[in-house]
Design brief:
With 107 residues, the protein is mainly alpha-helical. It has helices spanning 2-23, 29-49, 55-77, 84-103. Helix content is 80%, strand content 0%. This is Guanidinium exporter.
Amino acid sequence: MAWVVLIVAGLFEIGWAVGLKYTDGFSKPMPTTLVVGAMVASIWLLAVALRTIPVGTGYAVWTGVGAVGTAILGMFLFNESRDVARILCILLIVAGIVGLKLVTPNP
């Protein structure tokens, strides 16, 4: 269950990272409120997951999920680069996330 919580925390991280683009430097109240809410939810869920998952693994997976999701959404929402090298680097992050899951004992 801790892994599910950790992945959801990563999804909230994607939400707030992408949402920052819409806050216009925290000058728009509604997007800012949603981003801050997603930040709090993300950190809280990470803390819950870290009760049983080692901190190094949990933090690396959390940031990895956030980085991969944010990069992919950036490609689609903001027309960011989709070149092969970038996609291969994203796949390396995914491989690292999967590898950490495979070598970390289940709580």
